[in-house]
Design goal:
The chain is 45% helix and 15% strand. The protein has 16 helices and nine strands. Strands 5-4-3-6-7-9-8 form a seven-stranded mixed β-sheet, with helices on both faces. A two-stranded antiparallel ribbon has the order 1-2. The protein binds S-adenosylmethionine.
Length: 341
């Protein structure tokens, strides 16, 4: 039977559904972070497969245990397998502590911003001019640098290996990693290429932490961690491959363009430069994740914004890089823009 005009119109009428989901999404974030902190996924993998045993393993009172377990089931992060609880494929792979793929620290990476998102409208109303210095990385303590980079390392090793699928470094001699954090990209590259050397450029508080990761991987003879504020300090000369990853939204257009130009000036002729960034599509209408990284910069009133792939390509071309192209690195999250000197 044909639908009446009224029924068809009702079907097309907007609902509040996605608005309601979005406006309460913070509960989901809180629930997932708590589950990671309580080791819920790790305990299930360790054998606590019914609600009572899992509640005990997490050290919770039964009512709270039931609440968090039901929440994880509702979010599909765990599932019922008959009478037992089981992990979903992603929590099985990334949230069981002790496994090499564990990324729980990365799940908690942005948690220090948590309270500030609750007063975002007030923050956006502030009129103070933005500051170039990004206090999430400048003058931080070594403990904060360690917390931060346990997070970036837990996700960066996979990204570093992915980079090796994109970029052949067979004949390369020196990799320069601009704001390289834990050194994850350099560590993976030097493990793959025994003749490659690398230099990680980092803020003063981060360098000792980078050195710890390099040492852990037995690569102190080939990877140097060097103090270098990339907005201010000179770059080492002669790198024939360079990467700048996951710090694009931390600074504004002028600053990023200046860093790319400085990299071009310092690199060896023929060297390839790769900016792996949380970039928007060319028309700046999405995706959501880079847009959110840009918005997050308001919290510390940095100059940072969400740059578009077109803007990033412009920074490389204006600096003098040739054959500038962009390819998707991690869908909806990271783009890789590359050029050759
Ligand atoms: C999210 S982390 C990414 C780390 C690494 N590139 C990776 O992908 O695993 C951003 C990094 O940029 C570094 N960074 C930000 N501003 C910097 C600056 N002005 N000079 C040097 N490093 C900087 C931070 O210290 C931090 O390690």
């Amino acid at each position: 039977m044909a639908k009446s005009a009224g029924a068809a119109e009702r079907e097309q009428r907007p609902t509040t559904r996605r608005l309601q989901q979005m406006v309460r999404a913070y509960r989901e974030s809180g629930a997932l972070m708590a589950a990671v902190e309580l080791g819920l996924f790790t305990h299930i993998a360790g054998g606590a497969k019914d609600e009572a045993a899992l509640t005990r393993a997490m050290g919770l009172q039964p009512l709270h245990g039931e609440r968090i377990i039901v929440a994880m089931l509702g979010l599909g992060l765990i599932v019922r397998d008959g009478a037992k609880l089981a992990l979903a494929p992603d929590t099985e792979r990334f949230l069981v502590k002790g496994r090499p793929t564990y990324a729980g620290e990365w799940m908690l990476f942005t948690k220090p911003d948590w309270n500030e998102w609750g007063r975002l409208a007030d923050i956006l109303r502030e009129q103070a001019p933005p500051v170039l210095e990004n206090k999430t990385v400048a003058n931080i303590t070594i403990e904060e640098a360690r917390r931060y980079h346990r997070g970036t390392y837990s996700i960066g090793r996979g990204a570093g290996r992915l980079f090796l699928n994109h970029v052949d470094m067979t004949d390369k001699k020196l990799l320069m990693d601009i704001g390289g954090g834990s050194g994850a990209y350099c560590i993976e590259a030097c493990k793959r290429y025994p003749n490659l050397r690398a230099v990680v450029l980092e803020m003063p508080a981060v360098v000792p932490v980078t050195e710890e990761f390099i040492q852990e991987n037995g690569l102190t003879d080939r990877i140097e961690a060097r103090v270098c504020d990339f907005n201010v300090d000179p770059f080492p000369e002669g790198a024939d491959v360079a990467v700048m990853a996951s710090n694009l939204p931390m600074y504004g257009r002028e600053a990023i363009a200046a860093v790319v130009a400085k990299a071009h000036a310092a690199m060896a002729p023929g060297g390839s430069f790769h900016l792996i960034g949380e970039a928007l599509d060319a028309d700046r209408s999405g995706p959501a994740d880079p847009a959110m990284w840009g918005l997050a910069q308001a919290i510390n009133n940095t100059t940072g914004i969400a740059h578009s792939v077109a803007e990033v390509e412009g920074y490389l071309s204006d600096a003098g890089f040739k054959n500038v192209t962009t390819s998707e690195f991690i869908e909806g999250i990271l783009q890789r823009t590359a050029g050759v000197k």
